[in-house]
Amino acid sequence: MSEKIKKNILYVENGIGYGGAIICLRHLVRNIDKSRYKALVVTGRTSPLYEEIAEEALWKYIADRHFDIVGAHQKVDLAIWPDKMPGARFIINQILARTDDIANFLPFFFQLLWTAWRFKADLIHTNNEPLCNRAALLVGKILKIHTISHVRGDQYGSRLMKYTFSLPDHFIPVSHWIAESMRSKLDISADKITVIYDGLELEKLSPDISGQPFRDKFNLLKDHFVVGLVGLLMPWKGQNIFIDATKELKDKIPNLKMLIIGGTPDDCISYENSLKERVKQENLEDVVIFTGHLTDMPVIYNGLDVVVSASTSPEPLGTVVIESMILGRPLIGPNHGGAAEMMEHNRTGLLFSPKNSSDLAEKIFTLYSNPKLREKLGRAAREKALKTFSVEEHVNQVQNIYLKFLHNIKSEN
Fold this sequence. Notes:
The protein has 16 helices and 12 strands.
């Protein structure tokens, strides 16, 4: 980099909850060249975990939700009475949409506009899809600030979704699968796309870290075969598929423990309750364990015999896959999206047919039956991951994109 003047980067995180996306953003701002860049991270949600960002960069919470539109939609979707009146459901949905605009979007937009202006942002970097970060992208347009969007999901959606993809100056999809989807579905030119795998601090992800404290916490004995599905409790993360596989395996694998590991976004509390009720009704409480949100992921992964990613929709490149591979854990993932891109079947992990619980159960039983295969897959996965997911390489590539848009900007800082 030729310039010595420090630039102000405004990061905006508007994901549904504290998961892989915000974790990867924290790795970025923690390791960015602070002699050249000053980072301010704005999050639409808050919790003690979000507050920790203030230890790594400037941090500001701007509430992105004052009215629970998602909860209201769920109640309307389950109700029968709107279908008895022609047009009622359409009218209700329009009212909810306008309420969302007035009660949620506009307050967040105006506060973010003020924040960006006061911060004198030179560039806005959104950490999620353009649709959920349209406020930040519009702020960029108004203030004539370049915008960059990370893309971590699929491109199916409304006309509004397609419009928001016209706003960023550049995109950072986290896998080649996502990049190809953007080109084919939205006709986004290749020169506006740079694929960059998420980066993690490899030295903090050691296979030598003991998983025993995790096993002790949940009374997991040495002879228990422990399989963990790691991820936020949301329908598309595949917890129901995981429970289906449990039913097939509980009589085949002695001392089987199937752990559902992860917190629950506020929008998905009812989903969590339905999962727990299902486990109770199907007499799986001795096998399935809900851990809730946990930290210290290396200890958790190293306490599992097998790690599972079971997303029912193609996931760009989940943090679960990256962390598991770095730690050298035996990994099973769905044969679509980023998991299929990164995992080589029967070499760095096992792939199963998406949404197919019987195939998932078969792959789990295969690893249970073959400890040497578990060791072989884990070793090969770590070898590949160490070459691919270095946070230093991730930061360098992101900063090269910043260079492209900032080298002509004059700063008075």
